Amino acid sequence: MWTRRKMIATVATGATGVAIMGQRSEAQDRSSSEVPHSVMTKTCSDSCGDCAKACNKALHHCLTQAATGKPQHARMAGTAADCAAFCALSSELLARSSSMMIISCRACADACHRCAAECASFETDLEMKSCQQECQRCEDSCRKMVKAMEGDRSADPNAAPAERSK
Predict the structure, then answer these.
(1) pLDDT for 73-87, tens place per residue?
(2) What average pLDDT score do residues 79-101 get?
(3) Burial class of residue 99 (count of CB atoms within 10 Å of its CB; 0-12, 13-18, 19+)
(4) Is 162 or 67 the better-scoring residue by pLDDT?
(5) What pLDDT sits at residue 65?
(6) For 156, phi and psi rounded to 5 degrees?
(7) How far apart are CA 126 and CA 57, in angstroms?
(8) How does pLDDT run across 42-69, given as a tens digit for each residue?
């Protein structure tokens, strides 16, 4: 025969089990929905880091070429340096999930677009071609990231109105 104490213990154990299973299910739902976003963030951060390296390498190349009397490389050096700075900032902000990464990614995509266009004018220069390819890859990744973040913000009622409308 069941005593009152056994009945309460059985009900409490069952309720605890149901609560734990519910928490596990919620955690699994959250983690499965966050995986694509976190993968996209890591991919974009890696793209930005790779592009910063390529731009710094192109910067060094441009300075070397400018020293031999090639003025078009001297002008390009500034663009490569600026693009590397935008890429490095975006990579850092993405890596730590900063609330300002959308601003940085948008600017990084624009800087990469400009840098890639200028690199394209050096048709036979392999170093500049490499920089152009990395910039195009980074621009694409940043634009996808911005689009994803804008989607998140438009669904967030606490997001700043200016950010939701962009």
Answers:
(1) 999 999 999 999 999
(2) 95
(3) exposed
(4) 67
(5) 94
(6) -95, 110
(7) 12
(8) 999 999 999 999 999 999 999 999 999 9
What the block records as the tokens of 92 is 């850092």
List Cβ neighbours of 46 (8 Å cut-off, separation of 6 or more).
91
Confirm if 104 and 85 have CB atoms less than 8 A apart.
no
Q: Residue 24 and residue 21: Cα distance in Å, rounded?
A: 5
CATH number of the 40-151 domain: 1.20.1270.360
The DSSP 8-state label assigned to residue 2 in this structure reads: -
Question: Does the pLDDT of residue 124 top 70, yes or no?
Answer: yes
The residue written with tokens 């990084």 in the block is: 108
57: Cβ–Cβ under 8 A, 6 or more apart, which residues? 127, 130, 131
CA distance 12 to 116: 65
Q: pTM for the full model? A: 0.71
Cα distance between residue 126 and residue 128, in whole Å? 5
Question: CA-to-CA distance for 148 and 140, rounded, in angstroms?
Answer: 12
What is the rounded distance in angstroms from the CA atom of residue 65 to the CA atom of residue 133?
20
Q: How many residues does the chain have?
A: 166
Rounded distance between C-alpha atoms, residue 143 and residue 75, angstroms: 26
Cβ distance 48 to 88 under 8 Å?
Answer: yes
